[in-house]
Amino acid sequence: MKNIIDRINEGSVLLSDGAWGTMLYDKGLESTECPELWNITNPDKVLQIAKSYVDAGANIIETNSFGGSRLKLDMYELGDRTKEINRAAAKISKEAAGEDTYVFGSIGPSGKILMMGEVSEEEVYNAFCEQAVSLEEGGANALIVETMTALDEATIAIKAAKENTSLPVICTFSFEKTVNGDYRTMMGVSPTDMVSTLMDSGATIFGANCGNGFDGMVEIAKEIRDTNQSVFLMIQANAGIPEIIDGKSHFKESPEEMAAKLPYLIDLNVNIIGGCCGTTPDHISRFAEVINLTNEIN
After folding, report:
1. Contact, 13 vs 57, CB < 8 A?
2. 69: containing domain
3. What pTM, to 2 d.p., does this model score?
4. Residue 246 pLDDT > 70, yes or no?
C-alpha cells in the first residue's frame, strides 16, 4: 500500500469514514461504558462498524481508540490496559480494511488542561507516546490527533507520535462559530492559529472535525486555504447541528443533503473528506458517489 501522502499527491480526493460514537451507541453501548473497552469485550460489533464503512466506499477508516490514552482510560480504571486496548483497536480496523483501505489510529484529547496544571507536559507526552506506539503495533497506517482544542496539547501529541513511530501524523481541531461570526476552539484557537503554529510540528495533514455541519466546515476550510494554499487538508463534518430530543442528540442532515454540499469542499482542494457525529455508512456511501465521479472527471 502506498504511503498516504503519496496517494494524496496523485491528486485524488480520498474518503474517510463517518461517526464511530453514533454507531457504537446504535450497537448498544451504554453512556456509562468505556467505548474503547469494546475492542476487548465486543470486538465483533466494533468490526461490524469498521466493515460497514469499508463497504460504503471509504478509503480510510479510523480505530475505536479516540479516548484510548492512559489519562482517559484511567477515568474508567483501565489505564493498565492501555496497550492492549489500542493494539486491539488497530487490529480490528486493520482486519476490516484489508489491503486497499488505510487505517488511521485515532488519538483524542487527554481530558486534562495543561495550563491549569492538572497534569505535566511529561505525563501528557508519555500517555500519547504509549497510545501512538500501541496503535502502530496493531497495524495502523497513520495516526490522527483529532478533535483538539489547545495548541500545547496538540503539539505534544504530534511530537510523541513523530518521535516514537514511523507513521504519518494528521492533526484536526474542533472549531465552533462565535458571536462575532468567526471560528474558535473552546481554548480560543482559530483555524489560522492552528495552521500557522503547527506547520513545523511534524504533522503532514491538517484540518477540522466535529462541531459543525458542512456549512460551517466550508467556512473553516476557506480560512485554512486563505492561510495556506498548499497544506494537505482533511475535513470531517457532523450531520448538521444536533438537536436535543428526550435527552439525546439527534442529527438531521440526511446523506443526500450532505452529499450535495461536497463539491464546495472539493473546490477548496480538500484532500480528505469524511463524516463525524451523526454520520453513518449511508452518508459515506453517498459521499463516495460524488467523490468517485469527481476523481473520474479529474
Report:
1. no
2. 4-297
3. 0.96
4. no
